[in-house]
Amino acid sequence: MASTSPDSAAATAAAAPSPPAATAANTGDLPAIMKNDPARTGFDPKTKWWVNYFKILSGDMTAEGAFHYREQRYREHEERDCQRCEQFRDWTFAHSPTVRFMREKVADLNGRLDASNVVCRRCPARLTEDGQVHRQGGGFSPGHGILLCANEVRDRKHLEDTLSHEMVHAWDHLRWKVDWHGNLQHAACSEVQS
User: Of all helices (H) and strands (E), which one includes residue 170?
Assistant: First the structure.
């Protein structure tokens, strides 16, 4: 049995291959988000919006650059998008048969869905290193309520569909006591139902 001196152990450790870089698969975190590099993407946030838009149309901007352009425009129009989303939300609460039905069914289970816990916010998308864009239209959280992504709402019908979908999750949570984080089958069943 050979003895290992501290110097040889350090040399062995230094020569050993380094562990793989952290990825979403081995850390459980979200994928790394790509940052904009104007030299690489063609999108310069300091340039006027119409110049960047023309770069998209003429092919002088990469798909990644177009993604960053879109996200910047969403940030600039956040207040307008949220106001529009809230108007659509209020209209659907008053006039949509599907939303009114789901609201009644949630109320039958002692739940409450209204403007205080159905909120409109900007939801940033994520661009990963492999070029995939991760977006969401809304979400349900048992402790908070329903989130509607104002920047992803195309029109009133789209908001109605998204809100109805999330209301089904709220009903499932109240009716079946869904374990959203501990039991993947619960979440999958709710997703299929909605």
Answer: helix 156-176
Question: What phi and psi, each to the nearest 5 degrees, are found at residue 49?
Answer: -60, -40
Residue numbers annotated as active site: 166
Residue with tokens 């989130």: 147
Residue 53 burial (C-beta neighbours within 10 Å; 0-12, 13-18, 19+): middle
Helices and strands (H, E) in the chain, number of each type: 9, 5
Strands 145-149, 133-134: parallel, antiparallel or unpaired by DSSP? Answer: unpaired
> Would residue 95 count as lying in a domain?
yes
In eight-state DSSP terms, residue 130 is: T
pLDDT digit string (tens) for 1-19? 444 444 433 333 333 333 3
pTM of the model: 0.79
**Cβ(65)–Cβ(43) under 8 Å?**
yes
Is residue 119 domain-resident?
yes
Domain count, the chain: 1
| Sign of CA pseudo-dihedral 79, 80, 86, 90 | positive
